[in-house]
């Protein structure tokens, strides 16, 4: 049976979500704080986590980071994390997704929408791999990205990126010298969760650029204003048409 962990310090919300998940046929664990949540993840790993951002001890952002670090250390597949929070600004959502969350629901929420997002995340997690090219090492100029090891190097310098930053760079590296439209990048990296909210993409691109150019290296991620982004060096010919 599919096991879902609900991490929520509000008893009323926890009971509502737990009851709704049980009616959907899931096995449900409930934790009221971060320490309890991490203990459940360690001892009986769930298939999905519904995680409140504001908790009395360890907040949801830090729990996301620790869960992802634990998975990386033990070579485990990432468990889908659906974050619940009253913080609904674009920077807040970017921070949550960069910490390792897969989706984001703002409070107050409709329980029907929450259940739909749970089902969607589980389907996505169980779907067969459809992009085998991601297993190949991708290179361009002095940039190297290994999708299997989740590592990025600019020359000999290792660059540490969050999950979404890594996915964005991988998407551009798969299509060097080809302009990718804003909508294309959003769909491939975020699954269209923030359609029409360009700040999410712009903030992430800016952060990746800063990491790639930290040692004074030349810019590789170029903006085609009003169209999208392209990975190319300043010495390259004009990029191909946007997709």
Descriptive notes:
It is a single chain. This protein is of the alpha/beta class and 243 residues long. The chain folds into 2 domains: 3-126, Response regulator (Rossmann fold); 132-231, Arc Repressor Mutant, subunit A. The protein is 41% helix and 20% strand. The chain contains 8 helices and 12 strands. It has helices at 11-23, 34-43, 60-74, 90-99, 111-126, 163-173, 182-190, 198-212; strands at residues 3-7, 27-31, 48-52, 81-85, 103-106, 138-140, 143-146, 151-154, 157-159, 180-181, 221-224, 228-231. The strands form 3 sheets. Strands 2-1-3-4-5 form a 5-stranded parallel β-sheet, with helices on both faces. β4, α4 and β5 form a beta-alpha-beta unit. α6 (163-173) crosses α7 and α6 (163-173) packs across α8. The radius of gyration is 19 Å and the shape is elongated. Mean pLDDT is 86; it is low at 129-134.
What is the averaged pLDDT score? 86
Most strands sheet:
5 strands, parallel
Range of helix content:
40-55%
Low-confidence stretches: 129-134
- The radius of gyration over CA amounts to 19 Å
Shape: elongated
The first-level CATH class of the largest domain is given as Alpha Beta
The run of helices and strands is EHEHEHEHEHEEEEHEHHEE
Our measurement of the CA-to-CA distance between the termini, rounded to an integer number of angstroms, reads 41 Å
Q: Strand portion, in percent?
A: 15-25%
User: Could you say what the CATH architecture of the largest domain is?
Assistant: 3-Layer(aba) Sandwich
Number of strands: 12
- Under CATH, the topology of the largest domain can be stated as Rossmann fold
**SSE-based structural type:** alpha/beta
Q: What name goes with the CATH superfamily of the largest domain? A: Response regulator
Q: Strands across the major sheet, in which order?
A: 2-1-3-4-5
Number of domains: 2
Number of helices: 8
């Amino acid at each position: 049976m599919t096991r879902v962990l609900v991490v929520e310090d509000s008893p009323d919300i926890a009971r509502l979500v737990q009851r709704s998940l049980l009616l959907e046929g899931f096995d449900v664990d409930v934790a009221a704080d971060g320490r309890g949540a991490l203990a459940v993840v360690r001892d009986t790993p769930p298939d999905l986590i519904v995680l409140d951002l504001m908790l009395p001890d360890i907040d949801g952002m830090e729990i996301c980071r620790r869960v992802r670090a634990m998975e990386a250390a033990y070579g485990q597949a990432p468990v889908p994390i659906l974050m619940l929070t009253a913080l609904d600004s674009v920077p807040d959502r970017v921070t949550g997704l960069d910490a390792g969350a897969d989706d984001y629901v703002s409070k107050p929420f409709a329980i029907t929408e929450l259940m739909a997002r749970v089902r969607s995340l589980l389907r996505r997690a169980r779907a067969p791999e459809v992009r085998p090219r991601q297993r190949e090492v991708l290179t361009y100029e002095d940039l190297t990205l290994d999708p299997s090891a989740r590592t990025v190097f600019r020359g000999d310098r290792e660059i540490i990126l969050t999950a979404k930053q890594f996915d964005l760079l991988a998407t551009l590296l798969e299509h060097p010298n080809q302009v990718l439209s804003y909508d294309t990048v959003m769909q491939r990296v975020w699954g269209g969760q923030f359609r029409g909210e360009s700040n999410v993409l712009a903030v992430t691109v800016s952060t990746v650029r800063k990491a790639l150019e930290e040692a004074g290296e030349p810019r590789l991620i170029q903006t085609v204003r009003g169209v999208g982004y392209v990975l190319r060096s300043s010495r390259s010919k004009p990029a191909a048409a946007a997709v």
